Amino acid sequence: MTLVLGGARSGKSRYAEGLIELRPGPWRYVATAQAWDDEMRARIAEHRARRPAPWETVDAPRDLAQAIRQGPRGQPVLVDCLTLWLTNAMLDEAADLAAEVDALVEACRGAAGPLVLVSNEVGFGIVPENALARRFRDEAGRLHQRLAAIADRVVLVVAGLPMIVKGDAE
Amino acid sequence: MTLVLGGARSGKSRYAEGLIELRPGPWRYVATAQAWDDEMRARIAEHRARRPAPWETVDAPRDLAQAIRQGPRGQPVLVDCLTLWLTNAMLDEAADLAAEVDALVEACRGAAGPLVLVSNEVGFGIVPENALARRFRDEAGRLHQRLAAIADRVVLVVAGLPMIVKGDAE
Amino acid sequence: MTLVLGGARSGKSRYAEGLIELRPGPWRYVATAQAWDDEMRARIAEHRARRPAPWETVDAPRDLAQAIRQGPRGQPVLVDCLTLWLTNAMLDEAADLAAEVDALVEACRGAAGPLVLVSNEVGFGIVPENALARRFRDEAGRLHQRLAAIADRVVLVVAGLPMIVKGDAE
């Protein structure tokens, strides 16, 4: 299990795809984006265009734990990205966020094959004035800590290049 | 002397506590938080709950240099965190910020025992629209540079994990 | 060619100057700042005060590719910084940004002497509410990825200290 953190447009998705493509396919791509607006639709389209077969895309804007568990046992899985899933979960007022995060961590821990998780590192700026943004930053930070603790490798992507935070370089 | 930088909810406080706890106690915790509102009070309470004896907590929202100098000679000291202290100092219109920063740097340089300083890295975002936030970012960056220059070790905490910027891994 | 990334007040300019000063002078400093307001004027003045002869300063707020190509062949060149140039280009409604970025990357690839590029890493914060800021963040991230791919060294400066992302420590 590898956790790939990076800033906006850091090349983290492309780096993570490269990690998965080192394994024999087909590979499963678990997409968490929800197309709220045109800007997001354009980003989703751009990401999809980079992934021809043997990528199989599964959309999981909400039940990410289930999407990680399902599928052929041992198949390499890429989740892109955790922060979009967290946003969706936080905006769903009916959601039990703590329980969903627990379920996600358990699903990651139980993954039978290579699992690469992509997420935005969002905590290195000034404290946001918006309370929801502050809460999001806190939840994302806590989630990253829990996943990093159980991951075999943690990578921070800067300008498309990996900085190894935990584990070995591939 | 170790400078521990990290983003919001990066696990930097917990990592810093672990560094101090490698030494024989009792340990001194210098807390700089000022409880302006409920959100801050909750954060302070959460941090305190993690620190039973042999931690001795000293509140120093303003005179941090003095708090670092006092106490038994050689006692391990953790300061958490510099950015809250800087915020307090910048909001105090009667303060001579440059003189206080000089005094703080001198107190750190003169520390007789292990000293671990925790601070938020806040400079990796978009330029804030708010002029005070820009000034805070500048002051924090300058303070980190001065302290990093005299520190034996500088660590950037990402997702609870240390990236060594200066010195050796512990 | 070295790409020096860093946050606000991270000491990235000073670190980059140090890299150039390891070579025999005179050195060329390509300044991209445009003095829009007093705050910017103060920053420019502070940066200039650090660079006596043998630094030769060239102002290139817009035609950066040309400024990199001109000058004595093999002269060490420091560009400070790419993010200011990108801001200027994005605010110029008559500009063909994609073509200018291509020209800049080509000029960097063709540099005959040591070339050090300084830029702000701005992608590690919360998604900005401002659409222009989001676009800037995306363009900066893409530019950094392209330059990092062709650079011999990429360095992330934290608190005045270099973290090597690509290549060897100097």
From TrEMBL, chains A, B, C:
<feature type="active site" description="GMP-histidine intermediate">
    <location>
        <position position="47"/>
    </location>
</feature>
<dbReference type="GO" id="GO:0005525">
    <property type="term" value="F:GTP binding"/>
</dbReference>
<comment type="pathway">
    <text>Cofactor biosynthesis; adenosylcobalamin biosynthesis; adenosylcobalamin from cob(II)yrinate a,c-diamide: step 5/7.</text>
</comment>
<feature type="binding site">
    <location>
        <begin position="6"/>
        <end position="13"/>
    </location>
    <ligand>
        <name>GTP</name>
    </ligand>
</feature>
<feature type="binding site">
    <location>
        <position position="80"/>
    </location>
    <ligand>
        <name>GTP</name>
    </ligand>
</feature>
<dbReference type="GO" id="GO:0009236">
    <property type="term" value="P:cobalamin biosynthetic process"/>
</dbReference>
<dbReference type="InterPro" id="IPR003203">
    <property type="entry name" value="CobU/CobP"/>
</dbReference>
<comment type="similarity">
    <text>Belongs to the CobU/CobP family.</text>
</comment>
<feature type="binding site">
    <location>
        <begin position="31"/>
        <end position="33"/>
    </location>
    <ligand>
        <name>GTP</name>
    </ligand>
</feature>
<keyword id="KW-0169">Cobalamin biosynthesis</keyword>
<keyword id="KW-0548">Nucleotidyltransferase</keyword>
<dbReference type="GO" id="GO:0008820">
    <property type="term" value="F:cobinamide phosphate guanylyltransferase activity"/>
</dbReference>
<keyword id="KW-0418">Kinase</keyword>
<comment type="pathway">
    <text>Cofactor biosynthesis; adenosylcobalamin biosynthesis; adenosylcobalamin from cob(II)yrinate a,c-diamide: step 6/7.</text>
</comment>
<dbReference type="GO" id="GO:0043752">
    <property type="term" value="F:adenosylcobinamide kinase activity"/>
</dbReference>
<comment type="function">
    <text>Catalyzes ATP-dependent phosphorylation of adenosylcobinamide and addition of GMP to adenosylcobinamide phosphate.</text>
</comment>
<keyword id="KW-0342">GTP-binding</keyword>
<dbReference type="GO" id="GO:0005524">
    <property type="term" value="F:ATP binding"/>
</dbReference>
<keyword id="KW-0808">Transferase</keyword>
<protein>
    <recommendedName>
        <fullName>Bifunctional adenosylcobalamin biosynthesis protein</fullName>
        <ecNumber>2.7.1.156</ecNumber>
        <ecNumber>2.7.7.62</ecNumber>
    </recommendedName>
</protein>
<dbReference type="InterPro" id="IPR027417">
    <property type="entry name" value="P-loop_NTPase"/>
</dbReference>
<feature type="binding site">
    <location>
        <begin position="48"/>
        <end position="51"/>
    </location>
    <ligand>
        <name>GTP</name>
    </ligand>
</feature>
<keyword id="KW-0067">ATP-binding</keyword>
<dbReference type="Pfam" id="PF02283">
    <property type="entry name" value="CobU"/>
</dbReference>
<keyword id="KW-0547">Nucleotide-binding</keyword>
